[in-house]
Structure to design on (139 residues):
């Protein structure tokens, strides 16, 4: 990946990529809906602003882009070939923030489920993961 965007273009790109209602999120939502789970969206007051929450199961779902959130071992988590220092710092911050948010969330008695964008392509597997993670420890 060659990065020859201006600072403004890069920021605009990031804003777009980070914006809510991305396709992977829609896929997860429609799956949950089909499975009959009731959920809410974008709880901004919760740590990490989870994309989807299931209050009944005290479960927060994050749908993460593999590039921005650095999915370990994933081919989508490429590393830009220019502005290396900038990206290194950026990624480090993202990963650190994600980790802290998940810890904060767990400290408030919620559990989290992490869905990576690359997991969207195998719907059956994704469905199993969702059911299993949501019902884990459910009373
Ligand atoms: Zn991935």
């Amino acid at each position: 990946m060659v990065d020859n965007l201006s600072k403004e273009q890069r920021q605009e790109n990031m804003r777009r990529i980070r914006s809510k209602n991305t396709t992977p999120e829609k896929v997860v939502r429609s799956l949950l809906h089909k499975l009959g789970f009731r959920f809410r969206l974008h709880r901004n007051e919760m740590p990490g602003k989870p994309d989807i929450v299931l209050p009944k199961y005290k479960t927060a779902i994050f749908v993460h882009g593999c590039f921005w959130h650095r999915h370990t071992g994933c081919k989508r988590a490429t590393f830009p070939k220019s502005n290396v220092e900038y990206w290194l710092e950026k990624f480090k911050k993202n990963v650190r923030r994600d980790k802290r948010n998940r810890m904060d969330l767990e400290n408030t008695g919620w559990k989290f489920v992490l869905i990576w964008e690359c997991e969207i392509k195998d719907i059956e597997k994704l469905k199993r993961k969702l059911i299993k993670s949501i019902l884990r420890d459910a009373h």
